[in-house]
Amino acid sequence: MSLSDADHELVVEEIGREPTRAEAALFENLWSEHCAYRSSRPLLTAFDSEGDQVVIGPGDDAAVVSLPTYDGDEMYITLGVESHNHPSYVDPFDGAATGVGGIVRDTLSMGAYPIALADCLYFGDFEREHSQYLFEGVVEGISHYGNCIGVPTVAGSVAFHEDYEGNPLVNVSCIGLLEPERTITAEAQEPGNKLVLVGNSTGRDGLGGASFASEDLAEDAETEDRPAVQVGDPYAEKLLIECNEALLDEELIESARDLGAAGLGGASSELVAKGGLGARIELDRVHEREPNMNAREYLLAESQERMVYEVAPENVDRVAELAERFDLGCSVIGELTEPGTNYVCTFEGETVVDVDAEFLGDGAPMNDLPSEAPPVQERDLPTMDLAAAFDRIVASPNTASKRWVYRQYDHEVQVRTSVLPGDDAALLAIRESGTGLAFSAGADPNWTDAAPYDGARAVALENATNVAAKGAVPHAAVDCLNGGNPEKPDVYGGFKGIVDGLADMCSELDVPVVGGNVSLYNDSATGPIPPTPTLALVGVKEGYDAPPMSLSGEGTLVVVGDTSLEGETDPRLGGSEYTALFGGTDAFPELPANPTGLIETVAEVADEDHVLASHDVSHGGLAVTLAEMVHDDAGASVALETVDRGTRKRLLFNEQPGRVVFETTDPAAVREAFDGVAPVTELGEADGSNHLEITVNDDRLHYDAAEIAELRDTIEDELA
C-alpha cells in the first residue's frame, strides 16, 4: 500500500513541498483506514457516548467509566476493544497474542490495572482443516499471553461461518480497574516535558502493520505479509504492567500512549496532536535490538511491549531508575514544544519529519461511499424431523460447548471471578466499591448476515440480556465493528446496517457506547466477511452473587419474553442455526417492543431469592438453552403446545432475542413482575433426575445428561 495520488497532492499542498520518505510513510499509515477510519467515521456519530457514568469517552486509548459505590470507595473502570484480524490469519499465534498485549497497554495508558479480558473469535467452516489450524493457533496465542501476564480471560464468544474462511476475526476487549486520582490520558500536557520510551527494544517486526490492516487479504498473505505481524513477549509485558504501576504510585507520568498501530510515529504524534503541542524527537536515541535501522523503521515498527510517557524533566532520572528495576529499556527520545510548532523528527543529524501533528493525525479526508441496503429474506424453510434437528443443532460447533477454549485460560487469577466462563456473562467482584461487574462480549454472524440492522440490534439486546440474567443492569459498552471492503456498495450497506442497528438498540437500552474499534477490508479471495458488530458490555449490581445457569432440580421452569409460546406471533427462523445447518431463509425474528423494561425486570427478578437458575435464550433457541441447563444432578420435563404442527421447529429453534428461562419456586411472582412488560410462559418442572424431556404436542424428545454432553462435545472431540 502507498499514499494515493489524491492524498499525496493534499499533503504537498499542506506542507508546501514533497514529503520526505519518512513523512510519506507516516501519512500512508496514519491516513490508512485502520488508523483514520476514513470510511466509517461519518457513520459513528450514530452512537450515543454520553451519560453520568462516562468520565472519558471515545477518542483515547480506552474509555473511563465510574462505578456505583455500594460499600467502599469510588472506583472507575476502563473499557477498550481492538481487532487483530489480518495478523491472526498470517500468524495465528503471534497475531492473537499481540492483540491481547495491545489492548492491555491501552488500559495501562489510562492509569488502570488490567483485571479481565474477553476474546471474540470468528472462523470459517469448523470442518475445514485450515479453520481448525487458525482456531487452535489463535486460542493458544491468547491463552499463552493472557496467562503469562496474569490477566484472566473471563468471557467471549466463538462463531463459525463459511465467509470467514479467508479472513478470520480476533476481537479482544479488556477491563481495567482505576482509582480516580490515578487517571491519566493520551493528551500531551506541557511544553518542555520529556518524551520517554519505556519497554522492549525496537526491531523491524510489524513494519507497516496499520497499512497492512487496511487492505484485502491476498491469497499469498500467509507468506508475503508475515513481516507486518508483530511478535509479542508476555514476560516483558508483565514487567511493563508492574513498572507502570510503580510510575503511577510515584506520580511520575503526565500523559501516556501505547505504541500500537503505526508504532512510535503513530503514538507520539497522536499524543502531541491531542495536546495541541509540537515535539522534537531524535530517533537515534531509541533503544533498538537490530542494527542499521533507518528512520522509517524507527518510526513505524510495531515492536510490542512499549509505552511512550510524558515526563517532567525533574522526574526523568527516576523513571529511568524504575525502568531499570523492572529490566526494561528506557530512552529519552525528545521533548514537547510550544503550541503552533510542528512535530519534528531527526535522524543522524537530518530532519526527516517536519509536519503539523494535527494534520498528520486528523487531516485525512473522509470517504463518501455508495451503499446498497440488503434485501429482506422471504420464508422458504425446509422440513426436518424434530429429533434430527435437535441433535444437529445442539451438536453444531456454534452452539456446542466452548469448554475446550476457556479451559486453556486462567480465568481465576486475581481472584475476582465470581461467575466463571461458560455462563451467560462473567461476574467480577470489585470489592473496593462493593460492586458486582458483569461482563458479556460477542456477536452472531448468522444474525447480521441475514439482517444487518435487526441482527445488530439483536446483538446489543443479547449482550444486555446476558448481564441481566445474572442480576446486573447494563452500564456501558464498547464495540468492534468489522466489515469487508467498503468500496463495494453491498458490503458498505451491510456495514452501515450494523452500525445503525447497534447504535439504535444501545440508545434504547440507555447504554452509552464509550469507545471502540473499526476493522474494514476484511475481504479475501473467498469474499467479504459477514458484517460483524462485536459488542463488549458491562453491567453492575450490588454484591457478587448471581443465579447459576445450571438447574437446581427443585423449581418450576418459566420463559419470559417469548411471544410465540403465547400465540401472539408465528416465530421466524431468519438468521438461526436451523437455517444455517439445513438451508432456507426467513425474516429475522421480531424484537421486544419494550427492551428497556424487559432488561430491567430480568435483572430485578434474577436477584430474587425464589430464582434458582437463569439462562438467556439465544443461539440455537430454546432447545439449546434447555440442553445447557441440564446436568448429572438435575433435569427437567418440558411441554409445549402448538395448533399448527409446522411451527414445532420454530418453537424450539427460533432465536428471538430478549428471552430468559428462570427456574423458580414462585412462578406467580415472576408473572407479577413482568405484568405489562413481557409474556411469561410456564414450561414445566425441574427435577432431581439427569434427564431432559421435551414434549411438543405428540412429539417427545428424551435425553439424559450424558447424551446431551456427548452431543455438545463437538469441538473437544475434534481437537482433543
Q: What average pLDDT do the residues reach?
A: 94
Estimate the strand proportion: 15-25%
Strand order of the largest sheet: 8-10-7-11-9-12-13
Taking Cα atoms only, what radius of gyration do you get, to the nearest Å?
A: 26 Å
Distance between the termini: 40 Å
Q: Which structural category do the helix and sheet elements fall into?
A: alpha+beta
Report the principal-axis shape. globular
Give a quick account of the main beta sheet: strands, pairing sense, barrel closure: 7 strands, mixed
Report low-confidence residues grouped into runs of 5 or more. Answer: none
- Total number of strands: 28
Residues in helices, as a percent range: 25-40%
Question: How is this structure best described in words?
Answer:
This protein has 720 residues and is α+β, with helices and mostly antiparallel strands. The protein is 33% helix and 25% strand. It has 25 helices and 28 strands. The protein has a 7-stranded mixed β-sheet. Helix 6 links the parallel strand 4 (113-123) and strand 5 (153-160). Helix 5 (92-108) packs parallel to helix 9 and helix 17 (452-468) packs parallel to helix 20 (595-606). It is globular and about 85 Å long.
